[in-house]
Amino acid sequence: MSNHPSEQPAETVERLRAGFASGRTKSLAWRTTQLRAVRALLKERGDELATALHADLGKGREEAYRTEIDFVVREIDYTLDHLAQWLRPQPVAVPERLSPATAHTVLDPLGVVLVIAPWNYPLQLLLAPVIGALAAGNCVLAKPSELAPATSRSVAELLPLYVDTDAVAVVEGGVPETTELLAQRFDHIFYTGNGTVGRIVMRAAAEHLTPVTLELGGKSPAFVDRGTDLSVVAARLASTKFMNAGQTCVAPDYVLTDPETARELEKALTDAVHALYGDDPAASPAYGRIVNDRHFDRLTGLLASGRTVVGGDHDRAARYIAPTVLAEVAPDSAVMSEEIFGPILPVVEVAGLNEAIAFIGGRDKPLALYAFTESQTTRERLTRETSSGGLTFGLPVAHLTVSDLPFGGVGESGMGNYHGHWSIATFSHLKAVLDKPLG
Ligand code: NAD
Fold first, then answer.
1. pLDDT, tens digit, 9 for 90 and up, residues 270-282
2. Atom of ligand 1 nearest to the CA of 174
3. Residue 126 Cβ < 6 Å to ligand 1
4. pTM of the full predicted structure?
């Protein structure tokens, strides 16, 4: 359903196309007005959005603000501070044989952008690309995830109250609605979710030669080197793994470490889980729930993949799975055969760095690789000898909070990137301009 309820998808796209053709989205003033409008929405209606996020995912209020609402506010503020500078034409040197002449590049908005978002950070992953598309001077059709229905409804109701509705539309719905949207011609499609649907999106885009950005997932490893401070390592692993009950695309999926460190890490991870959520995480307001029964059943099916170090208990009626650490997990076990996307952290043992690098290289390229090490050589080897969307030493997930770092995957974890000025590059055409005087 769109925010113009009687409208068909084709009509919504036509309306946005007319909005783009009017030319008004190109001015810096229009762009900054739209960004400020989304900012005002987040500031004025933040509590409503936090309530919706709690209804969908049991997200605690502090986490909802930190990882969704304020995350987007920060992205908006950073963009507002730098947009004029990012949009400046860039001069390019002209070869002597063309002289006298000048050349430069300009960033052209693409037109109408489709943003399709997933359920796990249903606000952030919808609005952060929308911000990028608007800042680059485009019209946007935003499709929230039907699996986070309260957030989807809130955004569909609230966004049109703040932004230019001839340039921004929200269409709610699931597979049938998205399928119909994908039959339309867009100038860019930005999809966040799983690789199976990523392929559907790319096939649909091919019909219209529409460029795509695919923000996908995968198993992001965390390598723990010998001789690191394991209380710090465990605290950082636990806080990033169990945030949003593990339903984070860049969560550390599994730990790779040597057997001796693995044993020591068991106690440190148990302490870290207790420090975060107390003795009974089910009673902690900071701990989330699994999005639906299907994912709950899938996840509980993975709990037998290793020896339980901490956690393991679960309650289907509440869709609760305790923060769980599994030890002595075999590389071919069920929990290692797919992206976990839930609060289960398996520890897989390898002899050391060489075997870890071979292990990572033998699997799909992950969205992120994390490593805890004091060794500069290890840092350099991991940087040179592995491929992943992002590589972060010392603090998982932190790379995506740096606006000027490109956030995106490689291979099975996706293509393209965004955040900060990278969003402008994604949602613009870099046009080459050459000027040779007639005289
Ligand atoms: P999801 O089920 O909400 O699907 C994402 C979107 O695809 C939704 O809007 C949904 O309506 C649409 N969709 C689903 N089936 C479709 C179909 N057959 N045709 C057209 N559209 C369809 O979310 P999900 O895919 O379960 O999300 C989890 C996955 O997303 C994980 O793999 C995770 O790692 C990945 N993810 C990646 C990022 C990132 O930034 N790289 C962020 C979050 C999640």
1. 999 999 999 999 9
2. 11
3. no
4. 0.96
